[in-house]
């Protein structure tokens, strides 16, 4: 069983049905989709955002394609039901055509100059090979990793996106978690080519995500 990870970029710019509404507001950014399902003629997803959650609620409430939503301000997670969109419909059609399984999370990224999604799919070796060659011309693919699939369930690093893992590993290597600290947000940001404010926010998300699950795992054995 093989997996392939990479970034997909839709050339027409229509990545997510809500992205146009969200991205026109600098106060809100969609970061990661943790779960997504297609239910008849619509999609339902659990996504993580950054920025002003009050503004996010306003944007979702004003968007005609959204049927229902609920935002948890503390965790910056949103449950959203919305109409089909060309990009999402096309993505699920491709997965079905090659009998591939989408392994969440799906991370939104501009690492290749254009806004895209970093995702992982699992399937047979022949399916992985064919989909790489047969993607439609309106989708650009930036392959990153291919290999034998091994589930990461139960492993703490499996809770992080690739982007978060890069920041976390760099922070550890530079001594950010040493006592006393040997690295600053600015030094980590320079190493991963991101803004210090972005690194600060990502480290907070990483710690908020990992620490409770680590404690749960530890106390489960007590």
Summarize it.
Helix content is 37%, strand content 32%. It has 222 residues and is of the alpha+beta class.
Provide keyphrases for this structure.
about 220 residues, alpha+beta, 2 domains, eight-stranded antiparallel β-sheet, about 35% helix, HTH_bacterioopsin, transcription, transcription regulation, HVO_0513_N
Describe the structure.
It is globular, with a radius of gyration of 18 Å. It has helices at residues 19-23, 53-62, 86-97, 125-134, 162-174, 185-192, 196-219, and strands at 2-10, 28-39, 42-51, 66-72, 77-83, 101-109, 116-123, 139-148. It has seven helices and eight strands; from the N terminus they run βαββαββαββαβααα. It has two domains: 2-148, no CATH class; 156-219. The mean pLDDT is 83. Helix 5 (162-174) crosses helix 7. 21% of the residues are buried. A hairpin with a 6-residue loop joins strand 6 and strand 7. The two termini are 36 Å apart. The chain is an alpha+beta fold and 222 residues long. Residues 16-149 form the HVO-0513-like N-terminal domain. Keywords: Transcription, Transcription regulation. Residues 160-211 form the HTH bat-type domain. This is Transcriptional regulator.
């Amino acid at each position: 069983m093989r997996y392939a990870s990479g970034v997909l970029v839709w050339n027409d710019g229509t990545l997510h049905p809500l992205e146009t509404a969200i991205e026109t507001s600098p106060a809100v950014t969609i970061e990661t989709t943790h779960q997504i399902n297609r239910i008849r003629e619509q999609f339902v997803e659990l996504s993580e955002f950054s920025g002003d959650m009050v503004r996010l609620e306003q944007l979702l409430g004003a968007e005609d394609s959204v049927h229902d939503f609920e935002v948890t301000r503390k965790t910056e997670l949103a449950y959203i039901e919305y109409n089909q969109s060309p990009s999402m419909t096309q993505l699920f059609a491709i997965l079905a055509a090659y009998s591939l399984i989408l392994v969440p999370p799906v991370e939104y990224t501009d690492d290749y100059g254009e806004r895209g999604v970093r995702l992982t799919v699992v399937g047979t070796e022949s399916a992985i090979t064919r989909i790489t060659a047969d993607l439609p011309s309106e989708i650009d693919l930036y392959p990153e990793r291919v290999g034998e699939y091994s589930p990461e369930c139960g492993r703490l690093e499996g809770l992080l996106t690739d982007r978060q893992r890069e920041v976390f590993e760099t922070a550890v290597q530079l001594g950010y978690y040493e006592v006393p600290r040997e690295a600053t947000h600015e030094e980590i940001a320079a190493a991963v080519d991101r803004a210090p404010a972005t690194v600060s926010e990502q480290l907070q998300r990483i710690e908020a995500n990992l620490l409770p699950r680590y404690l749960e795992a530890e106390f489960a054995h007590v």
